[in-house]
Amino acid sequence: MKQNNTLPMLNKSLFINVLIAFLLFVVSCSNPASDQNKTAVIENESKELASWLEKNGNYIASAEVPAVISAGELYSLLGNNILLIDLRDAEQYAAGYIDGAINLGTDKVIDFFKQRIDPASFEKIIFVDNRGQLSAYVTSVMRMIGYNNVFSLRFGMSSWNAGFAAAGWDKVIGNELTDKLDYESHAKNPKGNVWPKLSTGASRASSIALLRAQQLLSKDAPAFLMDYKDLMKNPSAYYIINYWPEEQYLKAGHLPGAVQYTPKVSLQSNEDLLTLPVDKPIVVYCYTGQHAANVTAWLRMLGYDAHSLIYGSNAFMHQVLTGPAFAPSHYWGEAHKHNFPLSNSAAPAAATNTTENKAAKGGC
């Protein structure tokens, strides 16, 4: 009797068709371009990032900002479970550094934290530089991506050893603009809904933050510091932010045309952040430049073209800052200078050999 092969052939054909359909389903589900599984595009990365940062620490408005530590405090912590990262170039580092400090470029910092150390295992990680502004900027960037135990050394190596101060902060304080200060109040821009343009292509705010942090600390990142003399050549070309309390802004005077923004309040999205221009460079200044460096990092993270005045108000109105309306931490002076020990015999000679631990209380 002749065997009927029709049924087995149909079963085989059905099996092949089912297998092909299954494979197509798997490929479709695993393909990011699939309509059913497509990653949502973030239309306004800057707005999304601002919201994420404000929900995750809101560093710019927190009690910790600016996360600085004085030379005296650092000296008392030596030998404890801390890590010192010196951001100066190799030649400056070789001229004298704090015992135990490692030398690292800003472009290496994030990779070092992710690949080389367990950051959370340290009580504090302290960034060191010449003047305290680069370290403050890096501290702000790192805090924004979740490293909440990082700090910057206030006034940098100038406060650690008087030999560095003589070539650093001692040389830069000035009073050139004390008789040119403005005492009028200038209105902020009208509040709008225009955000800076960011195009990282990331699908999550946390990824945008990391990509922006890498960009801000990269070797090719544009300079964030500005000299007040360059600013005063054409001040109308900039949106100038005085980052002081309003009372000091009005009574002590400020740079011509500067607009007052209240520290730890104004630069949030539900306050005055959206009064900032996206088509004009922004210059932020505080007392010593260290708080402004934190703010500048915050604004640059969001895509604003922001800059911090180098040495802050101390560069052009130091004498005013020594008055009763200001705290000792607001101006460079003897209270900040120490002669703590340095590693490397090539370090500059200190004025004396004392290691007296002085402290100047107050914020930036």
Q: Could you list some keywords that capture this structure?
A:
10 strands; five-stranded parallel β-sheet; Oxidized Rhodanese, domain 1; disordered C terminus; 364 residues; alpha/beta; disordered N terminus; 14 helices; single chain
* Helix content percent band: 25-40%
Give the H and E element order. HHEHEHEHEHEHHHHEHEHEEHEH
Using only CA atoms, what is the Rg?
Answer: 27 Å
CATH topology of the domain at 45-174: Oxidized Rhodanese, domain 1
CATH architecture of the domain at 45-174: 3-Layer(aba) Sandwich
The level-1 CATH class of the domain at 45-174 = Alpha Beta
Cα separation of the termini: 101 Å
Structural class: alpha/beta
CATH homology superfamily name of the domain at 45-174: Rhodanese-like domain
| H/I helix tally | 14
Mean pLDDT: 88
Q: Could you explain the architecture of this structure?
A:
With about 375 residues, the chain is α/β, with parallel strands linked by helices. The protein has a domain at about 45-175: Rhodanese-like domain (Oxidized Rhodanese, domain 1), CATH 3.40.250. The chain is about 35% helix and about 10% strand. The protein has helices spanning about 5-30, 45-55, 70-75, 90-95, 110-115, 135-145, 155-160, 160-165, 170, 205-215, 230-235, 245-250, 290-300, 315-320, and strands spanning about 70, 80-85, 100-105, 125-130, 150-155, 225, 240, 260, 280-285, 305-310. A 5-stranded parallel β-sheet has the order 1-5-4-2-3. α6 (about 135-145) links the parallel β4 (about 125-130) and β5 (about 150-155). α2 (about 45-55) packs across α10 (about 205-215). The termini are far apart.
